[in-house]
Amino acid sequence: MQLKFIKAAAAVGVLFSAGGLLMLAQQQQDFSKVEERVIRVQGFGPLGGAPPTQVYMMVGAGGNTTVQVGKDGVLLVDTQFAPMADKMLAEIKKLTDKPLRNIINTHAHGDHTGGNETLSKAGNLIVGGNFAGQVAANSPAPIFAHENTLNWMNKPPAAGQPALPFGALPTDTYFTDSKDLYFNGEAVQLIHPHNAHTDGDTIVYFRRSDVISAGDLFTPGGFPNADIARGGSINGVIAALNRIIELTVPADKQEGGTYVIPGHGHLCDEADVVEYRDMATILRDRFQDAVKKGMTLDQVKAAKLTRDYDPLYAANQGQIDRFVENTYKSLSDKK
Which of 272, 246, 278, 242 is nearest to 259 (CA)? Predict the structure, then answer.
């Protein structure tokens, strides 16, 4: 498929989305050596002589960032690790001279929210619905997220860790199953799948551009990652993948059409999501059967239920063990 060759450098951190592992990934990475790469996905236009709307995938350190650029300005989905924010702004300026207007967080993890404060301050809040000029002076761009994402980000930090600055927190939250925006000539739908990667996930669907930003619900280079401590579950991940498949439409021979920007990894289409969903469902069923048989976690590990998928979705035994432990806990009463 188009751009299939791109294996995102943002795969660094795909399994570092919880607690100490995420902090370790950030501490061990030399951000000065990481460059941002921008890949055009697709878009539409022009609209009555206005500039066309385009959606890009930005790959740096942390999660993938989705960038929508058009006549009204710039909308970002996820903001990578904090040290990458200035590099992200430099790449955005190469795409447009329009200001940053909106940020959306797909979930609370720091590899997707780290640049919130810097990027938000670099933008402007629109007031009065007038994109032509009514901008609130010295007002940062709003940060949209599900209410549970704000709750996790606003929790007291672990011992020895600093609290997040106020400017990094989401400013506009929703608590329903969806929220709608209209920006750059298209509807932008925020869809909340329940208890998937976390309990505060958001899928972002750019309807006219036909692009979906999935966050860590979908990471094609690694096993499904349900953050149990933050309300995630393997069943919720599978339900969210099925929701994405409902929205996607292939162009020809199951290729192209709707593109899906994953939380980490390469640009994908419906066929990639279907393959990933099938893997997740098969493994979920194996684990569910083991739980029903009363097998312990050690017995499940010894059974090597993932062995046929390990070469595709795990780089080492530690990644396999984390997936096995999370999936077992997700399906078992033995929390």
Answer: 272
